Structure formats: structure tokens, C-alpha cells
Predict the 3D structure of the following.
Amino acid sequence: MIKKQKRTEKSAYIVAKYAAFLSLMLIMSYIESQFTFLIPIQGIKLGLCNMVVLIALYTYGAGFALVINVARILLMGLLFGGVYGMIYSLSGGIASFIVMYLCKKTNLFSKMCVSISGAIVHNIAQIAVAVILLKNTGIILYLPVLIISGVLTGSLIGIAGAQLCEKIKIKKFFT
């Protein structure tokens, strides 16, 4: 009986952990969508959810980070975006996650560099999908602007994410 209770408690803990991170990402996505007027260039966002993915990747590992990232993209797409928004977001989110994971796995890069890499690859993947879907290679000319924004926003998010990982010790709250 005690083993069954412990399994139930562990299952509830796991569900609560996923729900907490997913909720945080949904809130950050919503907040970010309300401040698009601060950056007057179409397609540039701060990438607040990238900070949660970064923290999850370093705190709970790749599987957890990937699941919450994909779940957030699908939920946001269903709630607010539509099919094309989901396609763009999934391409950017999955490509950036893979690069962030590989960069982290090498232990050669700081959290800020991992974040920057993710931001840049996210933009490249979305441009690649846009070229395919719209059959317009001219969109590639927008890539330098997006790469510069990826470096800037990725730096800010990486610094903030690294500080949160080190100072708050998030793992203690959920273990």
C-alpha cells in the first residue's frame, strides 16, 4: 500500500512540475504578445519562453525541456495562432531546442551562448519554412536583421536564465 501511495505522489509531483513550467511559458508567451509595439520590426520577439526552456534544459534535462516546449507551442497555436503559426513556431522551437541541447551537451558553451545559438537557429528555421511555404526566396534578405536580433535577445535571455539557474536554485523548489 505504501509503494502505491509513493507512486501516486511521484506521479502527482511530475504532473505538477510539467503544469507549472507549461503555465509559466503560456503566461510569458501572452505577456510577450502584449508588448509587440516595443519592437517595431515584424517577427522580432524577446523570447521569454526560451528562458524557461533554458532553465528546464539545465535543471531537468532535455526530455523535460522538449516536452514543455512542444506542448507550449501546440497550446499557443490552438488557442491563439492557427495552423501556419504553429508550423512556424514548431520549426523554430524544435530546431532551436536541438541546437541548444547539442551546445549544452558539449560543455563548451555558457548558458548565454546556448541561448544565443537557440535564438539564431529559431529565426533561421522560421525563415526556411517561410521560403518553403511562400515559395519566395526574397524572404532570406530579412535574415541578417533576425540574426542580429537573435544575438541581442538571446544574450539578454541567456544572462537572465543563467542568473535564475544559479541564484534561485529552481531545482530545490521542484525536487
Summary: The chain has a mean pLDDT of 88.
